[in-house]
Amino acid sequence: MFRNRHVIATLQVFVLFGSLMVIYLFYCAEDVRKFDSKIRQPPIKHNSNVFSWMPTCQQNMSAANFTDFHSYPDTVKDFLYYQHCRHFPLLLDLPDKCGGADESAEVFLLLIIKSTPENYDRREVLRKTWAKERLHKGVWIRRIFISGTTNSGFEKDRMNKLLELEQREYNDILQWDFRDTFFNLTLKQVLFLEWMERNCPNVRFLFNGDDDVFANTDNMVEYLQDLKDTNGSKHLFTGHLIENTKPVRDQNSKYFVPVQVQKSDLYLPYCGGGGFLLSGYTALVIYTMSHSIALHPIDDVYIGMCLAKAELSPTRHMGMMMEAENVQKGVAVAA
Ligand SMILES: *[C@@H]1O[C@H](CO)[C@@H](O)[C@H](O)[C@H]1NC(C)=O
Ligand SMILES: *[C@@H]1O[C@H](CO)[C@@H](O)[C@H](O)[C@H]1NC(C)=O
Ligand SMILES: *[C@@H]1O[C@H](CO)[C@@H](O)[C@H](O)[C@H]1NC(C)=O
Ligand SMILES: *[C@@H]1O[C@H](CO)[C@@H](O)[C@H](O)[C@H]1NC(C)=O
């Protein structure tokens, strides 16, 4: 047992210093392999929904018929080819995170943090700081990192293996087998909501954010406890409100969105994806709306579209500010 723990601890220290090559060499060392089968923990209580196989979603070749398609950046082409794909195998599950669907009302604030597999050091800081799982003012705060996969082949397997070790240690990662890229963040968000509906439907509130933000979660709990509705059964969606912006049509921008993706020249109001706070009720409404809205490459814009379809509004919370880069997803429309 001691040696196993030592292996895990050492791996993490190496990841922390970014020496991925060293981890690989270390991980493949003969004695580590021998212990690999023993580090497995006892099976978890609830049935896990981890699938090992699922038919792969086919590329939509017709997307390329559009006039300007061939001039688009590869990321946009890729988005269009796979925009319709919404189901991917779950690689790491957390069936007991909320104590099961029926008990999930016990979770007052669920922190959902988007993180790519290689961001181990960020997760490590968050676990010790604002995203620490704890009882605050008599209510539970729980944490989940949501992730896809990076690289391919051998490199991908190696990264997944590391994530699996991290999961054994912390039990706080949901991972699906899709490429964790900027334009797949909407997919990640929708996959999470689908998971939530099944595993944590009665969670009261959620904070949804990135792994590079700082969030004062103590204050959030106190803010939520002062609301009229403290059980999360009414609409709440608040954060850094962005209104009157239009899609970026400049192909050189990271946020370029062609007319093929969005015809309308105005984004509906949305809250910056760096961090927003919502009720469990609103999260499930967004998920329901997502069934009938094609995925949009920009995740927070997409959530704004889902809210609008449900005739719910995002609201501004002064306590939530984003850095400039995060706000520039759209071009401000001159008033
Ligand atoms: C669009 O692409 C598909 C598949 O590549 C092709 O079969 C179809 O004829 C194309 N449609 C038009 C209108 O060009
Ligand atoms: C494939 O792309 C075409 C053109 O954008 C679109 O009309 C069609 O609905 C897409 N098919 C699927 C399965 O999403
Ligand atoms: C999203 O993930 C799927 C599955 O891995 C991949 O085929 C697709 O290219 C990705 N899309 C983008 C825009 O990266
Ligand atoms: C939430 O509170 C409302 C009243 O504020 C109540 O009607 C409802 O039943 C409560 N829901 C749950 C799940 O406790």
Automatic annotation (TrEMBL):
Pathway: Protein modification. It is a single-pass type II membrane protein. It comes from the Eukaryota. Pfam families: Galactosyl_T. The keyword Transferase applies. The chain crosses the membrane at residues 7-27. One of its GO terms (cellular component) is Golgi membrane. One of its GO terms (molecular function) is N-acetyl-beta-D-glucosaminide beta-(1,3)-galactosyltransferase activity. GO terms for biological process: poly-N-acetyllactosamine biosynthetic process; protein O-linked glycosylation via N-acetyl-galactosamine. Keywords: Glycoprotein, Glycosyltransferase, Golgi apparatus, Membrane, Signal-anchor, Transferase, Transmembrane, Transmembrane helix. Its EC number is 2.4.1.-. It is found in: Golgi apparatus membrane. Belongs to the glycosyltransferase 31 family. This is Hexosyltransferase. It comes from Larimichthys crocea (Large yellow croaker).
